[in-house]
Amino acid sequence: MKNPDLLVFNSKGIYCPRAKVYLDPWRPVSHAIITHGHSDHARFGHKNYLTHYSNIPILKHRLGDISVQGVEWNTPFEINGVTFSLHPAGHIIGSSQVRVEYKGEVWVFTGDYKDENDGVAVPYEPIKCHTMITECTFGIPAFKWKPQQQVFDEINAWWKENKEEGKTSVLFGYSLGKAQRILKYLDPSIGTIFTHGAIENMTEVLRPQISLPPTHLITRETKGKEIQGGMVIAPPSAHGSSWMRKLVPYETGTCSGWMAFRGARRRRATDKGFVISDHCDWQGLLNSIKASEAERVICTHGYTDIFSKYLSELGYDASVENTDYDGEKEEVSSGAEKDSV
């Protein structure tokens, strides 16, 4: 008789029946292990949260007064006879993979991850396992990222050119992860860096963990003349809003993996697209799975059908499971900010 799966998918999330604990549940549960702070993975309403120490300030900032316990990287802890440990995912600050072991069987839930060392998040760590639950947000060959430094050289050159023309540069990036990655590699010698309130608030939470250049919050009192020629970091939800009026004249840019697609920049109505993502590209996914030595791969959120089919052709026992994770949205509604792009 086949042993039951160590992790199963149900209506609340990814569940470990033996330990009675969920991984990144999307409905309220008693015990939740959280991989990172993006809103599709870290939801409000759980009774007890467990995460990496560096993710605690993010969770408290976003979720308020919660019961949360922190653990260190690579430090096993046991729940009802099942051994868990958290390992760097390289996605954003505080992002983890969850390793789960019971009687020699090992599963790994990657959460969101990327294999490129961005100099901000703790770099991704491959983990040997029998079964790997992987995202595949960019799981088609069309996605191939440029080296990070090349992209940021392009961004700084764009900013400098705009300043010389008397224009303000406005970059759209999500408040958690993307914004801090952008800030880390901007050249402050070009000019002053300004921020939208959503960006500034999250950045202040993360400054104790990472060295970032000075930023200036744009308030109602800030004059347009003060901003002219500077760099403004704002969430995508600010695009097209009345908040942008005092930035005129400006050029806009979007930082996203979706900028690799023709037409994506036009659909977002931005002047410039910079291909930079906090997720693996096609080859990064394949390299990570190979490094895990997993025989079974479960694909969640993204190009699941295409990616799992390709893995099956390579000889993996590959399948698809549906989740409530967003991955990296190509289009962003005008409503609440999504944080996983």
Please provide a written account of the structure.
The longest helix has 17 residues, at 148-164. The chain is built from eight helices and 19 strands. The chain has two domains: 8-143 and 278-320, Metallo-beta-lactamase, Chain A (4-Layer Sandwich); 148-274, 3-Layer(aba) Sandwich (Rossmann fold). It has helices at residues 56-63, 148-164, 178-185, 197-206, 224-227, 264-268, 282-292, 304-313, and strands at residues 8-9, 14-16, 21-23, 31-33, 48-52, 68-71, 77-79, 82-88, 96-102, 105-109, 131-136, 168-172, 193-195, 216-217, 231-234, 250-255, 272-274, 296-302, 317-320. By secondary structure, the chain is α/β, with parallel strands linked by helices. InterPro entries: MBL, RibonucZ/Hydroxyglut_hydro, Xnuc_lig_assoc.
Strand and helix layout:
Blueprint (H helix, E strand, L loop, with lengths): L7 E2 L4 E3 L4 E3 L7 E3 L14 E5 L3 H8 L4 E4 L5 E3 L2 E7 L7 E7 L2 E5 L21 E6 L11 H17 L3 E5 L5 H8 L7 E3 L1 H10 L9 E2 L6 H4 L3 E4 L15 E6 L8 H5 L3 E3 L7 H11 L3 E7 L1 H10 L3 E4 L21
Parallel strand pairs: 3-4, 4-5, 5-6, 10-11, 11-18, 12-15, 12-16, 13-14, 13-15, 16-17, 18-19
Antiparallel strand pairs: 1-2, 2-3, 7-8, 8-9, 9-10
